[in-house]
Amino acid sequence: MTGIVETPSFTFRLERVRSLREPAEEHAREELARELELRLRGEALLREATHAVSAARETGRGAFERFGASGADLLAAQAFVERTERDRREAALDLDRHDAEVEARRRALTEAAREREVIDRLKERRRADHDRAAARRAQNALDEVALSVHRRGKVAA
């Protein structure tokens, strides 16, 4: 057999763009995963801080109820409760920041996926156009062969 090709193979001119968008989407997916992991850690820190506040309040309550507690003991207990509450508020703020980052990463992933899907759909449309044109050319060639066979048959008769 000879290596004659009737129709050229399909080439997508924007393949370089498409090849750039796939890693961009993957990068956005990894960033979202990283932020989700940080958010989970933030949730755990907030839970720990909430438990620490509860424990500090119990400890402080015990200091206030204890007979013979000095003013310094009471001040230290109050400072401890305030510090743990401040740590819990900071943990809550950090969790809010992580929530905002997760949402931003989700939007970035959605946008990257949308851009990749657009270029993939364009590629598929161009491939379908190419396949239809190749099929049309092949059908035209077959029609020409059939017509020439028919003409030869008429001339011979």
What do you see in this structure?
- The chain has helices at residues 15-65, 71-156.
- The protein is an all-alpha fold and 157 residues long.
- The longest helix is centred in the last third of the chain and has 86 residues, at 71-156.
- The two termini are 34 Å apart.
- It has two helices and no strands.
Radius of gyration: 36 Å
The profile of the biggest β sheet is: none
Helix content: over 70%
Give unreliable regions as ranges: none
| Tally of individual helices | 2
Average pLDDT score: 88
Q: What is the number of strand segments? A: 0
Instruction: Report the order of strands and helices.
Output: HH
State the secondary-structure class.
mainly alpha
Shape: rod-shaped
Task: Fill in the keyword field for this structure.
mainly alpha, 2 helices, 87% helix
The gist of it:
The protein is an all-alpha fold and about 160 residues long.
